[in-house]
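Worked example

This section walks through a single chain of length 326. The input is the sequence exactly as stored; nothing has been trimmed or padded.
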Amino acid sequence: MTTPPLSPTAANFKDRRAGLIVFGILVILLGCLCALLLPLMFAGQAFSAKLTGGAASYRMIIPGALIYGWMAVAFIWLGIGSVLCRRWARALLLTLSWCWLVVGIVSTVIMAFVLPQILAVSVPEGQKMPEAARWMIAVVMVGTISVIYVLLPGALVLFYRSRHVKATCEARDPVRRWTDACPLPVLAVSLMLAFSAFSMLSMPLAFNSVMPFFGKLISGAPATMLCLGITLLMAWAARAIYRLEPAAWWVMIAFFAVMMVSGALTFARIDLIEMYRQMGFPPDQLAQMEKFSFVRDRSAAWWMSLSAVPFFGYLIWVKRYFRRAT
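Given that input, the structure is written out below as tokens.
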């Protein structure tokens, strides 16, 4: 497929077609890496079961497999769009990179705090890891995470947010695309809701549909129905928010407020290990998690229940676009 020539407005910006091709190839390689991780996840589970003498719990890796499969398809598709200088690819890559960067920064900070404790309790009993070695491992791991979750998405954000990149895509792809019908901050909300709806489908398969519900844990048929209801709600909201319907914004504000209250009430009464036990985690993994103080003192549970707060605040911030649409 040949790329259309630049429009007469090319003199108003610098052509970034070469950069779009280079970054597009990088994104395609990321997609191939995600696809490669899929068989490695299953092979790792089988190898771990062989070492411990237990049965391989393949259902526990279903959520990760679905996520990596989705990422592989998305990255390869968007990378090809970037190589072809498509305006929809630039919009989606910028949105995805921002989400990736924000989650990566939060994850890196949390990992910097909990990693020293994980290394301290992971050493076999009767042995002691030298302090210098523990710090070196921590620095290498945090550095690697920072490159993958901060520097890489940061580079994508800096490139695709450039006005020259935007103008290049608009000049070489002058047709109005579906991504142009929605402001990018709102498009990010729509995509996150669509991804959340997709992820909720793995709950009944991987974690016995166990969910916190206003002070208790529910499972079985009631929890499965709740998961399906949340999936349908998020799928509807993803489409309605993309269409800038104010009713969908209000529904999501109410939904996440209720979810935060439900999580806070539940984890104030129920231990996180108990939830993992009902989800079907292997006993050896539960025993290992019980060694961590951030699990025993329920701080991890509180962080989980409050994880919706940043998204809740972001929802409030994007309300301005719905007023403008109205």
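What to look for: The chain has two domains: 14-176, 182-326.
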